[in-house]
Sequence to fold (145 residues):
Amino acid sequence: DFPVHPDICKEHIQSVEYVLCGRREHPLSRKSQVEYQALTDYSWAVLPNTLEKLQPLFDSLEFPKLDIAIEVASVDELIVAASTEDYLVALPESLLGKAEVAGVVRLPLKGALYKFSVGVAYMKEAQASSSIASVISIIKTFSWD
Fold:
């Protein structure tokens, strides 16, 4: 999130929820409901910033540190890793369709692992420029799915 500042305008565009996923054959896929404690029993494949988003949740529950087996640079690599091993991954809910094609499914954990907002930040001007409004309009029409 961009810091609050009197000279900066922030505009929310989209909320993104990251959900728990694993391959279709993952042991947790057979559960009717996955408990957070169970997530510490498996290795994770993560993107570079995933751990800083997830670990505070597990720390607050006083659970052990997550076992990070592999860190990858892209969502595509994350999906491949999850499709070939029993890794747990956090994926944006909007990418579940793409993941399912590769055999990676949402695991039955209640709610999202974490959420964040996507938006734009720009300097305030005496009169808002039409170029800023145009860019925001284009971004809002972008498909997040």
Notes: Residues 130-141 form the longest helix (12 residues).
